[in-house]
Design brief:
single chain, mainly beta, five-stranded mixed β-sheet
Amino acid sequence: FKEGEAWAVRKVESAHHVLVVNVDADRVGNAQKIATEIVAPVRDRGFDEVLVYVWATHRHKQYADRRVQWTPKGGYTELVMGD
């Protein structure tokens, strides 16, 4: 990441071997890079799925801008979402 490309975890929940992480980011286009950093330390903790929802920092809306799903078998899949 370059200077000024900030992101912060807003909320984390875990249930039934699924980890859900909500993130505010200056650049939602970096969603997959952000997800990679979040998943790396928890890869070996037995999660069947990690979902990283990314919101634009300065635009508060009901739905995330991006969702990145990680599974041990499928790797990363990014979904562009909207209002």
